[in-house]
Write a structure and sequence with these properties.
- By secondary structure, this protein is mostly helical.
- 51% of the residues lie in helices and 0% in strands.
- It has one domain.
- The protein is built from 4 helices and no strands.
- The radius of gyration is 14 Å and the shape is globular.
- The protein starts with a helix and ends in a 10-residue tail after the last helix.
- The structure holds zinc ion.
- The site of zinc ion has 5 residues, from helix 4.
- Zinc ion binds next to helix 4.
């Protein structure tokens, strides 16, 4: 899931294999930490936890890795994390961003 977001966000840039892998790994650990799951401390960035207002969806049995957050909010949270970490790891990218 992290990788598919990272791929779509980095489609216009030449990230390089190692950078791509590092960003994917940091994103994964940051998301695991946000879910309260096991993670490696050194890889975790500070991010805003997702806010889900879709209580009905959760009541219908829809749920994601994260408690109290539906799959679609969780998905945008993953995208946010990937983008945040990309901004930190690839500062020159800011100049290319135009969407
Ligand atoms: Zn939601």
């Amino acid at each position: 899931m992290v990788k598919s977001h990272l791929k779509s966000l980095s489609v216009d840039m030449d990230l390089g294999y190692n950078t791509f892998k590092e960003i994917a790994r940091s994103s994964t650990h940051t998301i695991l930490a946000a879910c309260g799951l096991e993670h490696r401390k050194g890889e975790v960035y500070e991010v805003q936890p997702p806010v889900c207002l879709h209580g009905e969806g959760l009541a219908n049995g829809l749920s994601s890795l994260m408690k109290g957050c539906c799959p679609s909010c969780f998905d945008s949270f993953v995208k946010d994390v990937v983008r945040t970490i990309m901004d930190i790891r690839v500062p020159q990218w800011l100049g290319f961003r135009n969407f």
